[in-house]
Amino acid sequence: MDKIIISDLEVQSHIGTTAGERERPQRLLISLVLERDLGEAGRTDMESSTTGYDVVIALVKQLLTQRPRKLIEAVATEIAELLLARRLAVAVTVEVKKFSMPGTQYVAVEIRRAQ
What we know:
33% of the residues lie in helices and 32% in strands. It has 115 residues and is of the alpha+beta class. α3 (53-66) crosses α4 (72-85). The mean pLDDT is 91.
């Protein structure tokens, strides 16, 4: 299967297990691997309005600014569900990195979901 890869999309989101942690936006890095057939795009050199990178990026940013969340696991799951529901991929891998744990560069979760 072909893949579209978006690496380390930076998004500010209200996230954290405590109310204090959710008070101000935190930096998240989102990486996506969208599995889909890219044959037509490769043959025609035409971008489909439903598969452009800008569409995916806008959807992810919109989702993460709608409401606060407690866990990066929820963020990853919601992103995967959104992209699959919009039929932007037949399978998607989502990695979410968070930078608030002392003594670590970051903590991350990675999930893969398919239709």
